[in-house]
Amino acid sequence: MKVMTLDIMISNELRQYIADHHLKYRDKLPSERELCELFSIQRLTLRSAMKILEEMGIIYVVPKIGYFVAKQRITKNVNTIRLISEIIKDNASTYETKLLKFVEIEADKYLCRETNLPLGTKFFEIKRLLIADHEPICMDYCFIPTNLAPELIDYKSYIKNLNDILVEKFNIKFFRTTQRIRVIEAESSYRDALELSSNAHVALLSGCIYDNHNHVVAFTESYMKYERFSFELF
């Protein structure tokens, strides 16, 4: 059980302060002196609380200037079955999708191992750049067995709503999912598109989605800017 220390309590109070004052991205928080007076605490305690908020991605620091509200993180519940694009769309003020690839392929050894389907199984490979609030935040790959949605390519221009297309047009039911999350070094194949530095890291969320008959309906790999996401287990 985590001990509720004073700095943790103050960090919670500061989160409430940000919400109560409707502070948004890039809004400046009061000075350290003002916050210490407001909460009747020492500066060392305040800085410890601010460090907690910084590590949570709620604020950021500009040296010699002050504390500012960071961009809101998009929360992914690892138990949910929805595609990451749908979660981003619901949690961003503006949302865009750039379709980079939509082709039919035959499964290689890696894809067969991940889906437990035989070599030669045909998939639609869909590669999309997901953009939230005008910032590219995720390179998303989705592999869908062609036999489940043979005419999916006809909906290429509507691929922003891939989740709805699969459910409504092809009657594909999402029943359960297996997911794993890793932090890896960003690869050159998507690093520039996500506007990352050469030594940057990303959160890789990957796994299969199954229907109620335990058939694979999709295998996904999402390379995400980890500072824009948080992951929770409800």
Task: Kindly describe this structure.
By secondary structure, the chain is α+β, with helices and mostly antiparallel strands. The chain folds into 2 domains: 64 residues, Arc Repressor Mutant, subunit A, CATH 1.10.10; 159 residues, Chorismate lyase-like (Chorismate lyase, 3-Layer(aba) Sandwich). Helices cover 26% and strands 34% of the residues. Helix 1 crosses helix 3. The chain is elongated, with a radius of gyration of 21 Å.
Task: List key phrases describing it.
single chain, about 230 residues, alpha+beta, Arc Repressor Mutant, subunit A, Chorismate lyase, 2 domains, two-stranded antiparallel ribbon, 10 strands, about 25% helix
Kindly give the count of domains. Answer: 2
What is the overall shape?
A: elongated
User: Under the CATH scheme, which architecture of the largest domain would be assigned?
Assistant: 3-Layer(aba) Sandwich
CATH class of the largest domain: Alpha Beta
Topology:
Blueprint: H1 6-20, H2 32-39, H3 43-55, E1 59-62, E2 66-69, E3 74-77, H4 84-90, E4 95-106, H5 109-115, E5 122-132, E6 135-145, H6 162-169, E7 176-185, H7 188-191, E8 201-210, E9 216-224, E10 229-232
Parallel strand pairs: 3-10
Antiparallel strand pairs: 1-2, 4-5, 5-6, 6-9, 7-8, 8-9
Helix pairs in contact: 1-3
